[in-house]
Amino acid sequence: MVTIALDGVGVSLGRRPVVRDVSAVLTPGALVGIIGPNGAGKSTLLRAMLGLIASTGSIRIDDVPLSHMARGAVARKVAYLPQGQTLHWPLTVERLVALGRLPHLAPMSRLGDADAVAVERALKRAGVADLRERIATDLSGGERARVLLARALAVEAPGLLADEPLAALDPGHQIDVMELLRAEARGGSLVVTVLHDLTMAARYCDRLVLIDAGTIVADGTPREVLTPERLRAVYGITATIERHGETTMIVPTARAY
Amino acid sequence: MAATPRGRRSALIGGLIALMIVAAIGSLALGSVPLAPARVLAALAGRGDPVATAIVIELRLPRTILGLAVGAMLGLAGAALQGYLRNPLAEPSVLGASNAAALGAVGAIYFGLAELNPLVLPVLAIAAGLVSLVMLFALAGRSESPLTLILAGIAVSTLAGAAISLALNLSPNPFAAMEIMTWLLGSLENRSFQHVWIALPCIAVGAALLLFDGRALDALTLGEDGARALGADLRATRLRLLLGVAIGVGGAVAVSGSIGFVGLIVPHLVRPLTDRSPSAILLPSALAGAVLLTLADIGVRLIPSTNELKLGVVTAFLGVPVFLAYLMRERRLW
């Protein structure tokens, strides 16, 4: 179990503030979606939570300030699935997924049996076990996205921050991935994911954090967050919001000016 | 499941070690006076006839040790740099250490210091390699991006190259210029145990620093953010890498002169035989570099020519077919 607490977090890229005064406590057990328009600062916020980018304010992982934690300690607590990751060497899928075990390896040691089990589990859960012998750089965009998800799962960290895991996936695999993330969260993990598909966000997330221009403008259940007024104010769209029992459908209809 | 790749890796390393031993024996046995392997082994064991002992121990053993060590260092440095910079065209000279070390050596020749004592030249070369490292740090700053490092390396390398050209330009007579040129071509001729004792500690330190970081290099397959999110401390990695290259390659260049292409082609030769992860090619690249340079040095001695061929010339010619093969594979011609 891991909790990330943000208090007054700000990030500037150059002189431009990208994230401003973000405060939230992200707790395990519920799938948290971060939504917001392009350039709102969603990815930057995720990177700040991992200490990959300098930030002001306070970020604490399980009550320990991030700045006091060694990189390896952060890596064992929180796995990260970046957006649109490039692969620099043509590794096999299995070898690539095994990179997820690096945070657990002592210096100069090799992957052990427990690591092999974790890699196998990750390959199966992401549905890419049949791709294991393939060269990762030769895969299609969607296959590669699932392999990279398997890489993040192989860390078996109590936390997972996934940046747009649905980009490049077909509808079937989008559902697979969302169900996987929700199952991880409900199983006691902290799962935070950046999403663009509002219907998917509404359908699978237990909690949505809506970000606009670097600050949180709404934080709550999908029903509380996704209102026509907010969609108009934040995304500049009019949308049809239909609720069929548990499922919510959000269909953008037009630009609102 | 894991046994197959691991078994393949052991086979590769075992095979390369066997080749290295064969190359080393060949290097001790072959030359203007060929010796039978039995005489070589007897001389090594201290039971040989005086002629064989003199040739093997005094002349060929230092040359063989240096060939193995310099080749291993260049191969390893190339593999580590290609992994760190995520660029298959990176090579040991990319950070400027080899050009700077060459400049130190050229300075020793130009100012006549090299004649005072045979040790002045290599010591100055190593010192210049370390100075280049300080410049590199000053230029690249605290940034962790490989691009700033490459740019800083090119700046240092170009400056050292320009200074070498200046020395050639201003050299007082053709003989001095010739001496500098000859040294720059790279060779292991007439090296003594003094050279071995200078180069070996540097190469050992450099190799130890470079072999340490396989983990972080693997993680860098996922880019810098990906690597850091996997727990890699890239600042420490960069420090070890720069020190390892400057000390190791500086020490190697100090005794051998500039020997190009080994660090560039060896990782390409071994990569297809591994799982292609950066850590998997480090040790095989060191072994293959040792084999390749030793074989090239044997070739230099055996190819009949009026002047002895220079090692750097031979390795440069060897580099071309390897690159053509790489190019053809990229273009999917075969």
CATH homologous group name of chain A: P-loop containing nucleotide triphosphate hydrolases
* The CATH class of chain A: Alpha Beta
**What is the total tally of β strands of chain A?**
12
Largest sheet of chain A: 6 strands, mixed
Portion of residues within helices of chain A: 25-40%
Q: Which parts of chain B are unreliable, with pLDDT below 50 for 5 consecutive residues or more?
A: none
Number of individual domains of chain A: 1
What's the architecture of chain A in CATH terms?
3-Layer(aba) Sandwich
Write the CATH architecture name of chain B. Answer: Orthogonal Bundle
Largest sheet of chain B: none
| Fraction in helix of chain B | over 70%
Q: Which value, in Å, is the CA radius of gyration of chain A?
A: 18 Å
Number of domains of chain B: 1
Mean pLDDT of chain A: 93
Strand content of chain A: 25-35%
Could you name the CATH topology of chain B? Answer: ABC transporter involved in vitamin B12 uptake, BtuC
Oligomer: heterodimer
User: Number of helical runs of chain A?
Assistant: 9
Q: What would you give as the CATH superfamily of chain B?
A: ABC transporter involved in vitamin B12 uptake, BtuC
Family (chain B): Belongs to the binding-protein-dependent transport system permease family. FecCD subfamily.
Main location (chain B): membrane
Keywords (chain B): Cell membrane, Membrane, Transmembrane, Transmembrane helix, Transport
Protein name (chain B): Iron ABC transporter permease
